[in-house]
Amino acid sequence: MPAEPRTRPPARPHAAWAAARPARLLALAAAALAVAAATPAALAHAAPSASVSPSTVAPGGRVGLNVAGCGTKTGRATSTAFGEMQLTPGNLEAANLVGSATVYRNATQGSHLVTFECGGPGGLRATASLTVAPGGARGGTGGSIGTMSPGQVAVGGSLVAAALGAGVWTIRRRPASV
């Protein structure tokens, strides 16, 4: 007759370990609370970062404005190149504020400071540089069709349509039955 396997009694933690468990849990909870309390304070004092795109633009061109790290849902951007523009949240979390502006047609050439202000007066600030130059990017059309005549655009469009039609005809063509 085979021997019956012996069962072990459930393991009991050492008495000193069992007594120290609540103290260890309390220390772990206190450390987690300290890290959680310090994180928002560190992030709240981080300076926002701002950008203007394109950074070089011709007078009368449009620029995109973006500031991240505000922590607010409102803001504004001001510059001698375009005046004051209100910024709106770029997403539901308001992680960044966005807007666009049209540079004055009579804006002076050279570098212009763009100041971004988060929230109301006295909020966090960030700056970016905008250069106004006669050869800068033409905002809106990106400079792609500014110097083309309507005839050139029509010829280019016709060539694209013909190429697409030839591609469709070639794909749809069936070989003759054998």
UniProtKB/TrEMBL annotation:
Keywords assigned: Signal
Establish whether keyword Signal is in the entry. Answer: yes
Signal sequence annotation? 1-46
Origin, by domain of life? Bacteria
The protein here is known as Sortase
Species, as recorded: Streptomyces subrutilus
